[in-house]
Amino acid sequence: MSFEHIRLEISPAAVATVTIARPDKLNALSGQTVDELRAAVELAPQQGARCLLITGEGRGFSSGADLAAGGGLPDDVGASLEKHFNPLVEAIFALPIPVVAAVNGAAAGAGCSLALAADIVIAGRSAYFLQAFINIGLIPDAGATWLLPRLAGRARAMEMMMLGERIPAEQAQDWGLISRVVEDEHLASEAVLLATRLAQGPTVALGLVRRLARDAEQASLTDALAAERVAQRDAGSTQDFRAAVMAFLQKHQPRFEGR
């Protein structure tokens, strides 16, 4: 499958790297860009990927929705969410493999939401996160109103969404929005190392962890415990589990195959 706005590369280590490749537009997200991202997200596990890594080319991760695309203001600004952005966010959360975001420079608007939809977010020291919607009279979208309170807590999420100010990488880490901050020049290599580590892990169990974590946001403790019981049965039936137990008994490191 060919793409114009993104690149999809799958490494021998089974890491699928999706790069938003519109550096001249600071990786702004047009409808075509978002649709290509969703296609790549859905294609990656079909082609054997065991971890997805999302990043942006050039000076920034993504400046958000491409306001210049479409040739003027639409009558219904929310229509593009239903057609393009919302299906992308749902596709990311539905993946059976872990997702890493490597954030360089700006992650703004829907680009911020895209980054924070990952399971693990690693950012360069000069990166920043911005929910700028309120500055142009819009509301945060692409899942931001669901993600931010869960990641940073209501107070910080409301400040971020209502003031529309930049949150530098180190502050984002302090707030719990992201996991790691590294020097800019080490971002790409550190992200690949992290994604490779996940790709070499027990893929079925990792996929179950990400599904349970999402579902638990809406579940009672009783429902979460019941879901864990079913998922543990599924994880316990994998070849990876059996191989890991044997490796433990024989005192060597297991080699996971993702099945």
Characterise the protein shown here.
With 259 residues, this protein is of the alpha/beta class. It has 2 domains: 6-199, 2-enoyl-CoA Hydratase, Chain A, domain 1; 203-249, Lyase 2-enoyl-coa Hydratase, Chain  A, domain 2, CATH 1.10.12. Helix content is 46%, strand content 15%. The protein contains 10 helices and 9 strands. The chain has helices at 31-46, 79-94, 110-116, 144-152, 154-163, 169-175, 187-199, 203-216, 221-236, 239-249, and strands at residues 6-10, 15-20, 51-56, 99-103, 106-108, 120-124, 128-130, 167-168, 180-182. The strands form 2 sheets. It has a 6-stranded mixed β-sheet with strand order 1-2-3-4-6-9, with helices on both faces. Strands 5-7-8 form a 3-stranded mixed β-sheet. Strand 2, helix 1 and strand 3 form a beta-alpha-beta unit. Helix 8 runs antiparallel to helix 9 (221-236). The longest helix is centred in the N-terminal third of the chain and has 16 residues, at 31-46. It starts with 5 loop residues before the first strand and ends in a 10-residue tail after the last helix. The model has no long low-confidence stretch (mean pLDDT 91).
Characteristic terms for this protein:
259 residues; Lyase 2-enoyl-coa Hydratase, Chain  A, domain 2; 3-stranded mixed beta sheet; alpha/beta; single chain; 2 domains; 6-stranded mixed beta sheet; 2-enoyl-CoA Hydratase, Chain A, domain 1
Structural topology:
Layout: E1 6-10, E2 15-20, H1 31-46, E3 51-56, H2 79-94, E4 99-103, E5 106-108, H3 110-116, E6 120-124, E7 128-130, H4 144-152, H5 154-163, E8 167-168, H6 169-175, E9 180-182, H7 187-199, H8 203-216, H9 221-236, H10 239-249
Parallel strand pairs: 2-3, 3-4, 4-6, 5-7, 6-9
Antiparallel strand pairs: 1-2, 7-8
